[in-house]
Amino acid sequence: MANEFDKILRELFRQPKMALLFQLLRDDIVKVVPLTPKMQQIVTEKEGDTVLEITNAENRRYILHIEWQSTNDPKMAIRMATYDLWLYQTYGIEVQGLVLYVGNEHLRMKNTVSFFGFHYSCEIIDTRRLDPDIFLDSEDPDEIVFSILAGLQTQEEQLKIIRRILYKLQLISGEEKFVFQKGVSQLEVLSLLRGEETQKNVIKEVNIMPVTIDITKDQRYKQGVEQGKLEGKLEGKLEGKLEGKLETKLEVAADMLKKGLSVDLIKEVTKLSEAQIRSLQ
Predict the structure, then answer these.
(1) CA distance 19 to 24
(2) How far apart are CA 145 and CA 172, in angstroms?
(3) Chain-centre distance for alpha carbon 124
(4) Does an H or E element contain 39, and which?
(5) Residue 279: which region, alpha, beta or left (left: phi > 0; alpha: psi -120 to 50)?
(6) How far apart are CA 87 and CA 65, in angstroms?
(7) What is the pLDDT of residues 23-50, one digit of tens each?
(8) pTM of full prediction above 0.70
(9) Helix, strand, coil: what percent of the chain each, to 5?
(10) How far apart are CA 12 and CA 268, in angstroms?
């Protein structure tokens, strides 16, 4: 299961995400270039999760290497040292290693490894220390989805964040139905990192969303869009909800299969039968 969470997080943050970088680095960034994460070694091939070349306002170049971790790995510091030394050898510029911990248990990983004259350390950040509003204010659907993992949330606060995520995804998706479906499928999987109850709340809010979200009240939709067109769109959503529910679930399941997620996890998220899911393979 941990590997499946990692796959989604790697996909979300393969490309630079400025809201996240601002929270992590507090640096005046002027340029970000994605780098290949694969590391060829003599006997093994390793792959970092997110590898970026950063250039700040002072024209200082360095590599930012981020690993997404959903469990407490006792060898995390050794893994990071291996990755970062390889990156330094390959690109010849300084490397800053960061671990973003997205698990629900208490953070227990060590961030240093030392022996004889060798010493390595990296920063390990629990994403619950990050401000969810930064991601909710983003126009990037990947960062919006990530906000479910940020902040120390009470149950009431969590419900508000779930509703804001769904509202914002619907808002920025517009006519691009796939963008919204993809965001919802990622949200349903990642929410499990905050417990089964959180995932149940997400699924519940998704099911009632056409009733709870009235996009006609949003100023961005009011500007330049005829009221009659909007009302027709909303009526169509409500009328077609039951009719299109199975089709939507099948599309979400197909997308999750492409990401390499397991049939068991897809069954849990979509509530489709195993036969229905396997028919999409």
Answers:
(1) 9
(2) 12
(3) 18
(4) strand 38-40
(5) alpha
(6) 9
(7) 788 777 878 888 766 554 433 445 668 8
(8) no
(9) 55, 15, 25
(10) 21
